[in-house]
Amino acid sequence: FQKGNKATRDFNIIKIGVMPAKEKLHGNIYTRVDKMIEAGLVDEVKSLQAYKNLTALQTVGYSEIFDYFENKISLAGAVEKIKTSTRQYAKRQITWFKKDTEITWFKPNEIESIVTKLSSEFGLTV
Hints:
Layout: E1 15-18, H1 22-38, H2 41-46, H3 62-69, H4 75-98, E2 103-106, H5 111-122
Parallel strand pairs: 1-2
């Protein structure tokens, strides 16, 4: 992989991306963060305080709650920061995937278009 040699395969790779509208994506992020808080993220992070300097815990969600424990931010502020950081991370992921010109992008409600593309271009039956 690092040498840049593309492997030859006896099959075709089909890359399909499904991208919701930005508002829907953000809504999903907000809902997910709220559910993580309700499911006990604060208690989980509290149990890991002794390990907070480990690289694995320097991630979205953990670092904001550690800041809350150190009185650098309120819990509500930490939750908002988690949502913002998650949105920013999702944006970076989208940007990275958009660079792959082999991906054909669809909206979630375009299932018929995906089936048509698979059938017409690749002869697949879905």
